[in-house]
Amino acid sequence: MSDLSVRYQTGAPQHLETRFAARAAGMLPSEIRSLFAVASRPEIVSLAGGMPNLSALPMEMMAGVVNELILTNGAEALQYGSGQGHPKLREQICDVMALEGIRANADDIVVTTGSQQALDLISRIFIDPGDVVLVEAPSYVGALGTFRQYEASVVHVEMDQDGMIPESLRAAIKSVRAAGRKIKFLYLIPNYQNPTGVCLPADRRTEILAICREAEIFVVEDNPYGLLGFDKPSPNAMRAEDSENVIYLGSFSKTIASGLRVGWALVPQSLKDKLVIASESSILCPSNFTQLTISSYLADQPWRDQIASFCELYKVRRDAMLESLEQHFPAEATWTKPGGGFYVWVNLPAEIDTKALMPKAIVAKVAYVPGNAFYADGLGSWSMRLSYCHPTPERIREGVKALGGVIKQEMQRRGTAIK
Predict the structure, then answer these.
(1) How many CB atoms lie within 10 A of CB 67?
(2) Chain-centre distance of CA 261, in angstroms?
(3) Per-residue pLDDT tens over the stretch 103-154
(4) How many angstroms separate the CA atoms of 155 and 136, rounded?
(5) CA 58, CA 40: separation in Å to the nearest integer?
(6) How many whole angstroms separate alpha carbon 212 and alpha carbon 203?
(7) How many beta carbons lie within 10 A of that of residue 356, not counting itself?
(8) pTM of the predicted structure, to 2 decimals
(9) Can you say whether residue 163 is alpha, beta or left, with left for phi > 0 and alpha for psi between -120 and 50 degrees?
């Protein structure tokens, strides 16, 4: 095996395992984390991680924002702040969400350390061991890891090229409740979903909301990519249609800079106090410095134009990936054609195990994320997620070509006819 092979196994010394809490058994590294050490090597074309591409973000401008903040308001920026988040930033977040049809009160917003922390806090508030969380099939690996740590039982709901299928949601709810199990919420990413890139149409959003209201199930709408549509805007957020049953998660990681780690949750008023208390017990308060950096940026810079620049950058990269897939992948493969966001989802012939194939891909100097990482039930072994957000178009073409060659060789080895 080459020294470029991926190693997935990690763990604590055996003599410490008996000292851990029972829930620690669910704290396992994700497939993506396991890939980082290899995929970050300069000779590897990484189509794995979903790192935003900051080449379109003017660094001199950001340096000016930070410099002005410290000079004019450093005493506040470098001090503890509110556990709910800075009031001015919460007002500005309302303006950002208005672009997707949401009318919100700043008092219903809780600022978090990225939207991932918001997801963790919601899970802490709602999930008892054995409770069911409904998710898309496939779903975001970071969410699956969080639900696993809180000992939830994850039930996947079937998707097609237009996202979650309402009838499959009805069937899942009926099946889970017939077994006497308790459903705590539905988690989904309606816009340019991670990992598939698909976008849920407006009519399905309305139907899914109606199903969940009738079933008295909260909807957790995770929306980091909603403003990153390439050809047309995404439909209005689900929260725009239902303010009482939707918990909305947002983030500046994809539209400004992921390193600032500023996200938020917009929650029904009845949940806000619990969320603030959970946040304060976790981190006391979100970073005043990064919050006020974001706030200054939103106040003084053409942030809508900056988002448009990101969209153009990602669109060029998406096009390079789709063109390369058409040119270099076998005809038996199928893939999504995202209208925004970061990802393409590829399905291969069922006999191809993409996790087992990974070491051969690494030898060919290309990395991706195997599809099973996005399922809680072991499915997805024939799929892979490819990310086009970070590499240059030239590197994307190079990586897809190499990966296509690896897949064709594996199909020939297995005696699969290649069209």
Answers:
(1) 10
(2) 14
(3) 999 999 999 999 999 999 999 999 999 999 999 999 999 999 999 999 999 9
(4) 8
(5) 24
(6) 14
(7) 11
(8) 0.92
(9) left
